[in-house]
Amino acid sequence: FVMRRIVLTLLLTGYFAGVSGQPQIVRSERMPALKLTHSFPQAVGGCEFFMINGLLVVEAFRNGQPGNYVLDTGTSAIILNEKPAAGLASESGAAVQGAVDLQERPLNSFSWCGIRSEHKTAYVADLQGFEDRLGMPVAGLIGTGLYKDYELFFDFSRQLVVIFPLDAGALHRYHQPVASLKLDLHMGIPVIEIPDASGHLLRLGLDSGSAKNLIDQACWERLGLEEDSSAGVFRLHDLSNSSSLATVSQPLELVLSAKMRAAVPFLKVDLRYAQQSGFAVDGILGMDFLSDKQVSLNLREGYLHIWGKSIPVEQSPEAISQLD
Q1: Residue 5 within any structural domain of the chain
Q2: E strand segments, 179-316
Q3: Count helices and strands in the chain by DSSP H and E runs
Q4: 304: containing domain
């Protein structure tokens, strides 16, 4: 296979069988300022996010200029929404279904949610088709390279993300996770091995840039999954501007821990292009898997911690500091 920079970002639109073909834009009410010194005394920063068409959109700053970015664990890079310049060297990145042209650009400064990066390299790609389908302006994608040295806590019910330094693990000790899934970074993208209820071990990428969960058609057939005809058919669009139709499986029961199982529906897709580009997985867990939970993502230590739907967020500094 050929190793390429992977960009797994996907948008979905309904195609037929009762599924609307129009994008669904869900915006939260603007949140009040976060009292981080009270709620999370060790936090580097915290900010709100919006769920737009199933994707996690945040405000970040490039060279001091604000813009809307998709927080995307399906790539390791910061990718800016610009057309590659003619005559300059470019590389062929791998989307889910085809190639995407990428071009390096110097990035003087980039900041999001208390994390700041200076004098790094970003990539540019033409995201106009993606932007049009998302239904809002997009300045780019924020990959894992920016936040791999921090722990990110997501509270989806409050549309809140809080950034912790890696040595501040009081949240785990004070609130025991229901499940802690070991992950590895493969080509900069988190990958988790999870058994299903029948004992089959699945290798799944964790991609916040995919609205839905995906499973390779070969794995679908190997597991004997059945189609959920009531769920409709979706059209998938990736950054290569390729598209395909995908049917939905009956939920597959995944064993997350001794205390937690999840019934997860998957869309059947052909992942051979990404696999042949070096990203060997059976499928992808997207925002559909994450967005009804509270989770923290620690890429450096290699864990996805899951607390289910709700843990108390407001805690006194005294209670937390006793754990350190």
Answers
A1: no
A2: 179-186, 189-195, 201-206, 214-216, 233-238, 243-247, 252-255, 261-264, 267-269, 283-285, 294-298, 303-306
A3: 7, 24
A4: 10-321
Continuous segment of H or E residues that includes residue 103: strand 99-112
The pLDDT value given to residue 256? 94
- Hey, what are 13's tokens? 């639109």
The kind and range of the H/E element at 141 are strand 140-142
In a domain, 298, yes or no: yes
pLDDT of residue 23: 35
Q: Under 8 Å CB-to-CB from 244, ≥6 apart: which residues?
A: 97, 235, 236, 269, 270
Asked if residue 2 is part of any domain, the answer here is no
Question: What is the C-alpha to C-alpha distance for residues 308 and 315, in angstroms, rounded to an integer?
Answer: 18
CB-neighbour burial class of residue 213 (10 A; exposed 0-12, middle 13-18, buried 19+): buried
Q: What does the pLDDT look like over 210-260, one tens digit per residue? A: 989 999 999 999 999 999 988 888 888 888 888 888 899 999 999 999 989
The two tokens of residue 67 are 């813009």
pLDDT in tens, 25-63: 333 333 333 444 445 657 788 889 999 988 999 999 999
Give the CATH number for residue 38: 2.40.70.10
Q: Across-strand partners of 168?
A: none
Residue 227 is classified by DSSP as B
Q: How many structural domains does the chain have?
A: 1
Q: Is 302 domain-assigned? A: yes
